[in-house]
C-alpha cells in the first residue's frame, strides 16, 4: 500500500502477513522489467499464442 498513513486502520494480522507486506529484505530483492519494444512484443505475443494453442 503506497499510503503509509492508512496502515493504522488495518488489522495487525494483515500488516504482519509477509505475503501482503513483504519485509524490507524481500523488497530489496524485487525488480521491475522494462517493456519490450512494440515489434518485439508482437513477436512474443504471437509465439506465446502458438504455445498456448498448440499450433
How do the strands and helices of this protein lay out in sequence?
Elements: H1 12-15, H2 24-28, H3 38-53
Characterize this entry briefly.
The chain has 55 residues and is mostly helical.
Sheet-strand content, in percent, reads under 5%
Poorly predicted runs:
none
Radius of gyration: 19 Å
Question: What is the residue-mean pLDDT, rounded to a whole number?
Answer: 92
The number of domains: 1
Q: Share of helix among residues?
A: 40-55%
How many helical elements? 3
* Classification by helices and strands: mainly alpha
- The 3D shape can be described as elongated
Strands, count: 0
Largest sheet: none
Distance between the termini: 42 Å
Overview of the structural elements:
The structure is a single chain. With 55 residues, the chain is mainly alpha-helical. It has one domain. Helices cover 45% and strands 0% of the residues. It has 3 helices and no strands. The chain is elongated. The N and C termini lie far apart (42 Å).
Attribute tags:
single chain; 55 residues; mainly alpha; 3 helices; 45% helix
Amino acid at each position: 500500500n503506497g499510503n503509509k498513513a492508512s496502515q493504522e486502520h488495518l488489522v495487525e494480522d494483515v500488516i504482519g502477513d509477509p505475503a501482503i507486506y513483504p519485509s524490507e529484505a524481500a523488497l530489496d530483492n524485487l525488480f521491475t522489467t522494462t517493456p519490450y519494444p512494440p515489434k518485439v512484443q508482437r513477436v512474443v505475443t504471437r509465439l506465446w499464442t502458438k504455445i498456448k494453442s498448440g499450433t
